[in-house]
Sequence to fold (285 residues):
Amino acid sequence: MTEARVGWSFLYSKRWIGYFALLVVFAIACVYLGNWQFDRRAQARDEISRIDRNYGADPVPIAEALPHPTDFDIDEHKWLTVTLEGSYEDSAVLSRNRPGPDGVGADIIVPFRTTDGKVFFVDRGWVAASGTDIEDAFATLPQPPAGTVEVVTRLRASEPEVDGRSSAGRTVASINVPEIAEVTGVQGEVYSGAYGMLVSETPAAEHGVLPPKPERDEGPHLSYALQWYVFILIAAIGVAYAARQEYKNLNAGSDEVREMEEKSHARKRRRGPSDADVEDALLDA
Fold:
């Protein structure tokens, strides 16, 4: 007697519905992570466009680039080269825990008062000062030139404050311009949306280590994004393979009996009717 054929009905079981639900959740997570990598690639490409557009551009006076001290647009102004004329103030701060060529150190941030009385903060480079020695580093910091100075800087956005970390003495956790203005106690109108990374100054003076030109590299985000979609395909193939294997296991008995019956009928058709079949036919007639 032929066994009852299960077919694909097992896919409606709770177990397999659970497998399909897990596959859907996994696919949604992979799509989210893939799109996140696409977004990061888009951000990297925007940064490359800003570098190409602004980094090597001719310097412009800061009053022309930023007519109002709060005017800073990251897409338009980041890496833009600007010139300032005025003098440095004697109230430097150190932005601690900054990466540099020799490990972790600090950036020297000095307020610069322009000839029209506004205050702009200049990052004069990195120094190897960290940990408990950071306060002692002020005695050996490179000093800015005295008197009237012409400075060329590249604009950078004011950094956000770091949660759980605040200023300590004359050190700050990030180059957050409003916080630095409060720590230094400078008076007057402050360029609050941006600070400048030193390029050159006249007359020249000793400064910290200046950063190299940023790399034009969008990173591996595209390959990472595609990998997440490949993971979806692999998972789907794995589920399909498991379903196929279970189908074979559940239907093996009925399939084997059916195959044997089909082979028996085929042999009878090839041999023709037997004597018993002929006798039965005559009796029926």
